[in-house]
Amino acid sequence: MVVPKAKVPDVLQLYHSGCSGSHLGVKRTLLKIRERFYWVHCRDDVDDWCRKCTSCAAVKGPQIRSRGALKLYNVGAPWERIAIDVAGPFPESESGNKYFMVVMDYFTKWPEVFAIPNQEASTVADKLVHEIFCRFGVPLEIHSDRGRNFESQIFQETCRVMGTHKTRTTSYHPQSDGMVERFNQTLERYLAKVVEKRQRDWDKHIEPFLLSYRSPVHESTSVTPAFANFGRELRLPADLITGIPPDAPCSITDYANDLRNKINDIYEHVIQTGQQTSQKMKTRYDRKMNSKGFDEDSLVWLHNPARSKGKSPKLQAK
């Protein structure tokens, strides 16, 4: 039977969405229709109908995770832009701490970690002001996830008063805070190796870890975080045993002049190396790009893997 164009939607509704279709895929829907009907561009219409079926899309979820082009952000000076995050909860330590707060500089990759009893906005803001701003100066920009403590009025007002711009990760996309998230994983793996059986001494191992993390060369800058931050390397406990060549004696003025020239060279090197590393990472990342992007005001599906309690996960929309 040849179907008039005006009746095509009725046929598609009946043989895909209705009781005769049961929301089967394109191939099976097309076979059933072709056994009974004919119209021009039948396959294209069936494919388009099944693809736009909201019930099918909601239950199946994304078959291929879309991936857009990687956006780069290159900083030009130490403590110009920092990332902040809170990890936990962990077993309450003997000092009463349950979380650790991480602050990391995007330029030097220098990390600071503070064990804290809670993740309230007032606690986080107090640590940020007294332990970061008062020691390293106020950054131009602070980047965080969308945690309630970072989005709170207290934290926002602290940033406003101190004159720093607050940015946040994209919704449902914590990878845009990848530097600090990766650091958290490294620290947590280390703590899992060294804590006692009761796991109540985890906060005592943070500072030794930081000494070890700050002293080796960072792959994205090709210098150590300590050298990028201070213009000199850290003296490690092992150096007291093996010994290191002493610096030539000089006056404070000569040392300051040499340090100034050295730091300028360090900054140029870190900027150049960072840009090269970022571009290589972008090239690798964009090879798997499969998203054409979206226009403003476009309607999109939101993949939500969370499941409602009391309902079968297999019978819920994705």
UniProtKB/TrEMBL annotation:
Protein name in the entry: RNA-directed DNA polymerase
Gene Ontology MF terms in the entry: nucleic acid binding; RNA-directed DNA polymerase activity
Any one biological process term the GO annotation gives: DNA integration
InterPro entries listed in its UniProt record: Integrase_cat-core, Integrase_H2C2, Retrovirus_Pol_polyprotein, RNaseH-like_sf, RNaseH_sf
Transmembrane segments: none
Span of domain Integrase catalytic: 74-233
Pfam families in the cross-refs: Integrase_H2C2 (PF17921), rve (PF00665)
PANTHER family according to UniProt: INTEGRASE CATALYTIC DOMAIN-CONTAINING PROTEIN (PTHR37984:SF15), PROTEIN CBG26694 (PTHR37984)
UniProt-listed Gene3D superfamilies: 1.10.340.70, Ribonuclease H-like superfamily/Ribonuclease H
EC numbers on record: 2.7.7.49
Highest taxon in the source lineage: Eukaryota
